[in-house]
Amino acid sequence: MKPNKKSISPETQQEAFSVAKSTQKPGQTKEQTKLIAQGIEKGITLYKKQHKEKLREADKLRKKQSRNSHQPQTESNVESPVSDTKPSNQPMLPWALLVLSWVGFATYLLLQQ
Questions:
Q1: How confident is the model at residue 87, as a pLDDT?
Q2: In sequence order, what E strands does the chain have?
Q3: CA angle 13-19-20, nearest 5°?
């Protein structure tokens, strides 16, 4: 257990002790406060360790996604003709609606006279 004490930074120890002091109840002995501070230190170190692991995993995932994003570019070139057929039908709709609206407007004007 001594290697754990050496790995705990003085800032963590100080922070744990200050938290233990702030939650200290009347009649609580110094030994009890020290035990509470040690428990808080363990909690802080465990939290930091878990946080570092999460950051490492997130970094690995980000790197993996960046590697995968470079590879599918060659595959997306093959798939692009398939995706081009769908958008070519979509621009027809706005033009058809535009023509229809002008025909309707012209009909309305002719019927008004």
A1: 55
A2: none
A3: 85
CB atoms within 10 A of CB 30: 8
Give 19's contacts (C-beta < 8 A, 6+ positions apart). 37, 40
Average pLDDT, integer, range 51-77: 81
> Could you tell me the two tokens for 14?
């100080």
pLDDT over 90 (residue 50): yes
Structure tokens at 63: 């790197």
pLDDT on residue 72:
55
**Residue 44 DSSP symbol:** H
In whole angstroms, how far apart are CA 3 and each of 8, 9, 13, 87? 9, 12, 15, 64
Q: What percent of the chain has pLDDT over 70?
A: 77
| Overall pTM surpassing 0.70 (yes/no) | no
Residue type for position 110? L
Q: Scanning the structure block, which residue is given the tokens 């070139």?
A: 77
Enclosing H/E stretch for 8: none
